[in-house]
Amino acid sequence: MSGLDFSDRIARIRVYPAADGYALGEHVALLASNEAPFAPLPEVAEAAARAAAGAHRYPDPSATRLRKAIAGATGVGLDCISVGNGSCDILLAAGEALLEPGREVVYAWPAFSMYPHLAESSGATAVEVPLDANERHDADALVAAVTPLTRMLIICNPNNPTGTMLDLAQLTTLLEQVPSEVCVVLDEAYREFVGEEDPDATIELLKKHRNLLILRTFSKVYGLAALRVGYGLCADPALKVALDQVRQPFFCNAAAQAGAVEALRHAEEISRRVDQVRESRKQLVDDLEALGLHCADSQANFLWVKLPDAVDETALVTSLREREILVRAGTPLGGPGHLRITIGLPEELARLVTALGELLP
User: Are residues 127 and 167 in the same domain?
Assistant: First the structure.
């Protein structure tokens, strides 16, 4: 009996390297998925629960209340704001809208594991540009990789998995060199954790560059990963229309919309949480470097840690798992010989440091 005849792109698309451990006990230190270590604020959870009580009705397909709230927070016009099932939903929609066979998408590597899917699903060609010696985006090399066939250039900033970033001046210079027909996607899932400059400074770039799309999410700093809600800020309103055209209707559920609207009302508390993550990040860097480990210069809520050559990455991750500590191995993320460690609660990070001190040679 013959099996189903899948489309050619199914053979091209790799499986997303999702973290495991979701079925483990409550005492597991979840340091693998870059989630917030804090639960949503009570008011946010209550708003989502109230919306869920009306789950027999479809959500607002245009997410008007949420888009108005984002407009108020960012200063971006309502017709230039796209929301989705996480920022990844908008990223994939951009691929659907802009890419096809014979076109190219350029991005640094290693970077977010979803970027290869854009080429694999659309039939476009992926052009991967290595990070520089400091594990940052090589801006000059990225610009040099753009050709007349390029239709998308992605900048993950801060970069996942390294946590490194280009500053505003470097981004400005890069944008000035990219042709207007190339959509520059500035993926800022971790932007709120940046401590070196105003996290919202990049929004001003939308006024000068009509080919810019900025992606942000409520999954990280706002602690709404399970609700899946993100947004895109489009310099050109025509891009917002195109993103909606290629997606199914009702792409952002009612609980997610309500929770995100409420979350935006609590900027002061969110700022305190960001400060705590930054403090824990600095402490963890100090503790890991005391163990002889090198950390990339992270501006995100995670660290990219280089292991000594004598250490078996897989064996170390397994040993930590046996101690109920989950971290991400670097190999599936494009960086063999590394660990990606989420900034969790102080007691979780203390457990991690103690375990590494016992396990490393």
Answer: yes
